[in-house]
Amino acid sequence: MAINQKVLEEMLNQYPSKVKRNRKKHIIIKDSALARQEIEANTRTIPGIITNRGCAFAGCKGVVLGPLKDVIHIVHGPIGCAFYTWGARRNKAKSEDPTKNFINYCVSTDMQESDIVFGGEKKLARMIDEVMEIFKPNAITISATCPVGLIGDDLQAVAKAAQEKHGIPILAFNCEGYKGVSQSAGHHIANNGLMEGVIGQGDWEEAPGKYPINILGEYNIGGDSWEVERILKEIGYTVIAVMTGDGSYEELKNAHVAELNLVQCHRSINYIADMLETKYGTPWLKVNFIGVQDTIDSLRNMALYFGDPALIQKTEEVIARELARVEPILGQYKKICQGKTAFCFVGGSRGHHYQGLYAELGIETVLAGYEFAHRDDYEGRDVIPEIKLDADTKNIPDLHVTPDERRFRLKISPERMEELKKKIPLSNYKGMNIEMKDGSIIVDDLNHFETEEFIRLLKPDIFSSGIKDKYVVQKMGIPSKQLHSYDYSGPYAGFNGAVNFARDIAMAFTSPTWNFITPPWKNEPLLEGIIAEGGCSKC
């Protein structure tokens, strides 16, 4: 069943009038005949509504900082907050020095009631001393949780004193969960901190190899980054740093020497991409390594940027070899997946990225959206000047950088830059909406009620989202592919990742378990009515 404005209106009528007015702005039906379709995003979730969003602390420590492997990440707050951002994201990391890989550790000050009353600064200082004695990391981060902000512990002062005492970088992030409307605020806070305290602190002035790049917004979920790096290194690229999957402080501090920054997850890392371009003159390229064709397009765009005929030829050779290997395998799974439909509601840029991979398997995405996006993630960066800053946005300090007097240099000429912008997404992202089909539904901050209603109306064959709503959907008899941590599978990026994803989706469709589950709409009538007592009044 296709959803039109009338059906959407009937669904929203179940809300109280004030809630309806709010949520209506967050839902659009794609119509390319309209000159513009504006969607509201990055506003607070209505109290009482069950949302998939996380908090600012989750975005800062859990998403951006947590994957750095040679850093000890101290969570200053209750132990539950530390556990919430540890272990669930499946950020994989490996190190040549096993004593400098702390990815499996969860370190917390474990604040108790007495710490809330009397303050936790001394406890935090002791924790830093203990971490230095046991682990001897290359750097330390301290992430604040809600109680810390409420009682007023001065993280910056504690970090500064500890840095002078121990002689290593100790970075404090005031990312209390209540700052901002979602985890997006935490991304911004983390980006600012890394830009101020890490990037550019290294002593490299030139890259150690040809075609030096940074990969931004790649968090190595299930090994994604390793698959992407496998391809890039074989072509001939020198990967300086990954922000931050399988990344390290030692690599990140020299990120300034790259000639090009690749942006995978636009929302979580676009702040750093912009600042690197301003400070060091390094352009960024929007890429997508999810799906075969999108991976190919990204590789070709990279080669076009550098413009070296040898690099372009090597790129085509690798693409041809990988295609010959994976296309026969994907063809088998496509027979199972062909003609099915999907919901793709995932944070970051994944709600956009996975639509291409679904399409390659013959699956049409009929609903998509983001948990914590801003309007530019939907409508493209051209709308950024039009976005009004509200109180929540102003709560996150903007870091204003200027060109580095010593290290700034244009990586390509302005003329070449303008020429490339006409061909590739250089320092630009057109947003998710532009590639959605007419009639498809685009939803920002999808909630539990809307999830059930849209499933009842559209009856998708598979649902892609996060862990919070996975089991509810499966109880409706619909397979759910969890795309935040991949359900202990992966990688899903690159050529090998596409094969892994196709295998898992095909298994989800063919699992016999769905024969034992009856969707609610098969037990309950879709039309209801009552028979008045006494029969017809005219009889």
Automatic annotation (TrEMBL):
GO cellular component annotations of the record: molybdenum-iron nitrogenase complex
Cofactor: [7Fe-Mo-9S-C-homocitryl] cluster; [8Fe-7S] cluster
EC id: 1.18.6.1
Domain named Nitrogenase/oxidoreductase component: residues: 55-509
Keyword terms, alphabetized: ATP-binding, Iron, Iron-sulfur, Metal-binding, Molybdenum, Nitrogen fixation, Nucleotide-binding, Oxidoreductase
Gene Ontology MF terms: ATP binding; iron-sulfur cluster binding; metal ion binding; nitrogenase activity
InterPro entries: Nase/OxRdtase_comp1, Nase_comp1_asu, Nase_comp1_CS, Nase_Mo-Fe_asu
Swiss-Prot/TrEMBL catalytic activity: N2 + 8 reduced [2Fe-2S]-[ferredoxin] + 16 ATP + 16 H2O = H2 + 8 oxidized [2Fe-2S]-[ferredoxin] + 2 NH4(+) + 16 ADP + 16 phosphate + 6 H(+)
Subunit comment: Tetramer of two alpha and two beta chains. Forms complex with the iron protein (nitrogenase component 2).
Purpose: This molybdenum-iron protein is part of the nitrogenase complex that catalyzes the key enzymatic reactions in nitrogen fixation.
Family: Belongs to the NifD/NifK/NifE/NifN family.
Name of this chain's protein: Nitrogenase protein alpha chain
